[in-house]
Amino acid sequence: MGGHRLGAGSQFEGVVVSKYMVFYNTTSAMRDQMAQIPPEQSAAGMQDWMTWGERVGDRLVDMGSPLENDGDTDVQVSGYSVIDADSQQHLDGLLEGHPHSAAGGTISTQKFLEIPGM
Predict the structure, then answer these.
(1) Residues near 36 by Cβ (< 8 Å), separated by ≥ 6?
(2) Architecture of domain 9-111
(3) What is the pLDDT of residues 34-70, one digit of tens each?
(4) CA 111 and chain centroid, separation
């Protein structure tokens, strides 16, 4: 799956694409539920993520990582990925059927901006 590329955009098959940060949001109830999942079920869930990553292919710049959640805020970002996409609509298509959404979580995205002069 994708390799690390720097900058806010890159070329993919000759087309300039934008880079998007994908945030995986969970509620405290979902995090509590996930903490109780047995290892075998957790492994099956990771296979769903790997299958999704294979479907996205080279557009997946960075599969990302889970993030530690602190504090008592109900909804928190619990992980991230970085994806190259032609547009927000294209990104939405790549995220369709994502295992995080299927598990009850929500996904938010933000487009990387170019750094002036870089």
Answers:
(1) none
(2) 2-Layer Sandwich (3.30)
(3) 889 998 988 988 999 999 999 999 999 999 999 999 8
(4) 13
